[in-house]
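Fold this sequence, please.
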Amino acid sequence: MTQVGGGAEPEPASPLNGAGNGSSDTMSNFYTQVSSVQDGIAQFSSNVSRISDLHSRTLNSADDGASRQNEALLDELVGQTRQLSNEIKEKIQTLSSYPVSRAQDQVVRKNQTGLLRQKFVDVLQNYQQVERDYRAKYRQRVERQFKIVKPDATPEEVAAVVDDTSGTGAQIFTQALSSSTRYGESRTAYREVQDRHNDIQKIERTLEELAQLFNDMAVLVSQQDEGIDAINDTAVRVENDTAAGLKETDIAVKHARSARRKRWICFFLTLAIIAILALVLGLVFGLRTKSSN
């Protein structure tokens, strides 16, 4: 299976620039691109598993050096996975409008892109759930660290520190730190709270990007449905036009048969008239000859 970490993989030949011009070449290129997307989705799923593992290591590591290393690996892998998700989305969009002419190929395109889209949405949902779970765990860690500094903190103070978006939480934490009797432990807790806040912000960014991807895929479904409706409308028009054409053909055939029948009738009438004239003339000339003798 093709390994995709984040760099762009070579694009399979398209029907516009690849070798061969027949329908079989077109569909062969189509299936090659389908396989490429399947490989990308499998790699995306593998990346999500590794991201989950790195989140867990970051949370459970007691060593600052190891924690920093895990965070660096996590940032790199999240970036690669972000790029990979965009590549997969664009490839599915391209496949959804892949140029095919035969009706059966259009059905294949619709079914294959529908399956790829559903698989991609499934792995996106899994990634979204992983990020939500670890966001909750990071928030719990921040709450525990704050209570080390201020064990008697009110729920409002805890919420302000955990959900710090305007700097109010940092102020509360700093004030608690200045009055704490456990200075060394409090300083360590403060540093970890700052780190966890950074992690939470990164997760929030990832969740926003995933939400946008879901929206893009929904738009793609809508566009494809509109395309399918247009194809169906065209098929109905073609069917109606074909039926009308067959009806006109039947009428033309009937007219042609009627015309041929009339021509034959005229032909036989002409022969009969000629025969009667010949008989009459024969009788007339025969009687004249007999009278002369």
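Residues 1-20 have pLDDT under 50 and may be disordered. The two ends are 116 Å apart (CA to CA).
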